[in-house]
Specification:
CATH superfamily of the largest domain: STAS domain
Structural class: alpha/beta
Number of helices: 12
CATH class of the largest domain: Alpha Beta
Largest sheet: 5 strands, parallel
Low-confidence stretches: 119-131
Mean pLDDT: 83
Number of domains: 3
Strand order of the largest sheet: 10-9-11-12-13
Radius of gyration: 27 Å
Shape: elongated
Number of strands: 18
CATH topology of the largest domain: Transcription Regulator spoIIAA
Distance between the termini: 88 Å
Helix content: 25-40%
Order of helices and strands: EEEEEEHEEHHEHEHEHEHEHEEHEHEEHH
């Protein structure tokens, strides 16, 4: 088709560079020669264009309307801009009109599939359900890798489904959708890159982030993944905290939900077993925002759970103390309880802001403590 058209400009785009901007009245159309592009509207990625020979940008001239989406290079890309009016092109070259009709037909079919899928999802999910189950698809032929990821993600109550190869992944995605897909970059040949490209044509996982799994230090595999449109990479052997952080980021989830959670009429602040520098920083970055959300929700009860800590060190004391001080400094009429066991349990009452908090053995006793009338406690 390119040979039939005279006015064509080939242009290369770096990652993140805009190919077509919204608000413009277009003329002609574009053809992807290589690379991967993202179609973005109001900051949200609607779809991807990564098949060489794909036509895009034609609707503006056909409909006589300004473009309502931005098309941006996800990876270094080459694009041919056809700068002749579509009417002139199809008049001179009927073969081009056939290609355009097929392109529009596929796009309409995909839109219908997406609409049908969304309607089906709305019917099957209860409107009263505030949280959807996070499902992760892992494509790897190593059982140990599957088990490790299953254990890591289970702490966030995420569900892992696995398959060892490309065929299995494609079959699963024909009938299932996922919050994220992890693909091993060690699959034979270019299987991982080809699989990601094929998944992006499936309406069930069209906008699902795909993450590569690489061996730590394998820079060539990481470069290959990112240049092929993978959202990010996690390294093996897995660091649970770093893997979590990447998954929360690519799925656009609130990472503080790992530590802070609204349950019934109280805020639960639960410290993980290990307080690495990364976890401490993540908690502190989200602390102020979570306190504001608590106030906004009208919640006046707090429970801090330190019972899972492997070691009660200075870091844990500092984090809990900072949280309690922030509550105290804001002069909020909040009641608190700390879930702690062992000989050091009473120590938590020595922290500023925690002097009047109840020390409880488990969640049930903490909730029971918060239900008591403060005046009754003073009499006791």
């Amino acid at each position: 088709m390119i040979a039939l058209i005279s006015m064509i400009r080939l242009q290369e785009y770096a990652e993140g560079e805009i190919v077509l901007n919204d608000g413009e009245l277009g003329k002609g159309f574009c053809i992807l020669e290589s690379g991967s592009l993202a179609v973005i509207r109001e900051g949200k990625t609607l779809s991807e264009i990564d098949q060489p020979g794909s036509i895009f940008g034609e609707l503006s001239e056909i409909l006589g309307m300004k473009r309502d989406a931005v098309i941006k290079a996800k990876t270094p890309s080459k694009v041919r801009h056809v700068e002749e009016s579509i009417e002139d092109i199809v008049t001179k070259n009927p073969k081009v009109s056939v290609k355009l009709i097929r392109t529009l037909g596929r796009r309409l079919y995909r839109m219908n599939q997406l609409a049908t899928n969304e309607m089906s999802a709305n019917e099957t999910h209860s409107p009263s359900s505030n949280e959807e189950t996070i499902k992760i698809l892992v494509v790897d032929d190593k059982p140990n890798i599957i088990k490790q990821l299953t254990d890591i993600f289970a702490k966030n109550e995420w569900v892992v489904q696995s398959t060892p190869d490309e065929a299995g992944a494609l079959k699963i995605c024909e009938s299932s959708s996922f919050s994220a897909i992890l693909i091993s970059m060690a699959l034979p040949g270019d299987t991982s890159v080809d699989l990601r490209r094929k998944l992006k044509t499936n309406h069930n996982v069209l906008n699902t982030p795909v993450i590569g799994m690489i061996v730590q230090g394998d820079e060539s595999a990481q470069k290959k993944a990112l240049n092929s449109g993978f959202a990010d990479c996690i390294t093996k052997p897995f660091n649970a905290n770093k893997a979590d952080a990447i998954m929360f980021k690519v799925m656009n989830l609130d990472s503080s939900a790992r530590y802070f959670k609204f349950v019934e009429d109280y805020l639960l602040f639960k410290l993980p077993p290990e307080l690495s520098p990364f976890v401490i920083n993540d908690i502190k970055e989200n602390m102020d925002n979570r306190i504001r959300n608590t106030i906004n929700e009208g919640i006046l009860k707090l429970i801090i759970d330190v019972s899972n800590l492997e070691e009660v060190g200075e870091e844990a004391i500092e984090v809990v103390g900072e949280f309690a001080e922030k509550i105290e400094d804001m002069k909020l009429p909040m009641r608190g309880a700390i879930i702690a066991t062992g000989e050091e349990a009473e120590m938590w009452n020595n922290l500023d802001g925690c002097e009047e908090w109840g020390i409880c053995e488990d969640l049930d006793s903490a909730k029971e403590h918060l239900e008591k009338d403060p005046d009754d406690e003073e009499e006791e």
